[in-house]
Amino acid sequence: MNSILKIEQLSHKYTSSWAIRDINMEIAQNGIVGLLGSNGAGKSTTMNIICGVLNHTEGDVYINGFDIRTQAESAKKEIGFLPQIPPLYTDLTVDEYLRYCAELRFIENGKIKSAVEEVKERCGIAHFSNRLIRNLSGGYRQRVGIAQAIIHKPKLVVMDEPTNGLDPNQLIEVRKLIKEIALDHAVLLSSHILSEIHILCKEIIMIEGGRLVFADTMDAFDNYMPSNSLMMRMENPPPIGDILNIQGVTRAELLTDKQVRVYFEGGEEITERLVVAGVQQNWQLREISLEKGQLDDIFKTLSSPQPNS
Ligand SMILES: Nc1ncnc2c1ncn2[C@@H]1O[C@H](COP(=O)(O)OP(=O)(O)OP(=O)(O)O)[C@@H](O)[C@H]1O
């Protein structure tokens, strides 16, 4: 079976400098994949190439098995695109605009009405059918932008920073809609905000300086940095000095009168030594858990220049 998206050795040069270099990625099934990177990392360049808006310099892009360069028409039928600035005609009503988008997507005349009704229902904009787009709030405009991206039921929906600039309530609603859409489409969603990708995505692809620096599940990203601290809760905590005496402990701090954070070096076996000491010294240990690396630290580590890059 064809992958929904397959990118091989993709590179693009604007005039004299490379914007992206040797990018490989694959999306095999529905769900949300996050494309994360700082400003200027190469996200929009990659997305524009995937959507056939920009002609790449080197490499191959396949959408559902169709080459975006040599089989552009078939490939583009399988793509919906929501660019950073949604392509809305604000002097049209929601119905007029979506009918126009359906025509652009070559939906047969007899099926346009039902396609428009269905997508409005799906995106929660049916009650605004006759409203001019310019009179909609930012969140509802974004819903119309999403509706035009899925009206032809593409396999892949590409969204460039779709939650940027929304207020907190709109943000929650638009995120919910994107998650619903991802149940029966593959969604590639870009953001420069790690927490946004973390909330929405099951997989993450990170680009920095035009190069791919990480591609795996969100869980693998969370576990990327080995833990160097743990938290202990005890009914009868010892003096901090007793904890510092245990081999491998580098620092310990009291969080509450029953909770201590312990920093360590030399591997996770430290937990065994702490449990043994806790039993021998009657700390009445109730909880001990390793703390994951902070997300922002992982982002910083991955986005700093790699040796030989
Ligand atoms: N039309 C262009 N001509 C020349 N250079 C460009 C052009 N568009 C982008 N670039 C450069 O290519 C690199 C990647 O830009 P791109 O817009 O793809 O990054 P991005 O990750 O989408 O950033 P942002 O989050 O700011 O949109 C940057 O160095 C940018 O300055």
TrEMBL record:
SMART domains: AAA (SM00382). It is an enzyme of class 3 (hydrolase). Its EC number is 3.6.3.-. Keywords: ATP-binding, Hydrolase, Nucleotide-binding, Transport. It comes from the Bacteria. The keyword Nucleotide-binding applies. SUPFAM superfamilies: P-loop containing nucleoside triphosphate hydrolases. It holds the Pfam family ABC_tran. One of its GO terms (molecular function) is ATP hydrolysis activity. InterPro entries: AAA+_ATPase (IPR003593), ABC_transporter-like_ATP-bd (IPR003439), P-loop_NTPase (IPR027417). Belongs to the ABC transporter superfamily. This is Putative ABC transporter ATP-binding protein YxlF.
